[in-house]
Amino acid sequence: MQPDEDRKRRDFVLGNLILGLAALILLFMGPLWERLGVWALILWMALAATGVYLITKDKDQHPGPPL
Fold first, then answer.
1. Which one of 9, 19, 29, 56 is most buried, counting C-beta atoms within 10 A?
2. Predicted structure pTM score
3. Is residue 60 within a helix (H) or strand (E), and if so which, with residue range?
């Protein structure tokens, strides 16, 4: 693979791992909310946004012609 493709794959995998962590936090939001308060929600939103950004940042900038 080319170095650019390695970086894209790494970002994609890292984005999925971060989204998995965000899902895990969402499952335990009740206890986290009791301990952290609104910061639990802010942490979840930051993880979700970062994960989505990493997954979508490698999209092709110049898609092919319509089929």
1. 19
2. 0.80
3. none
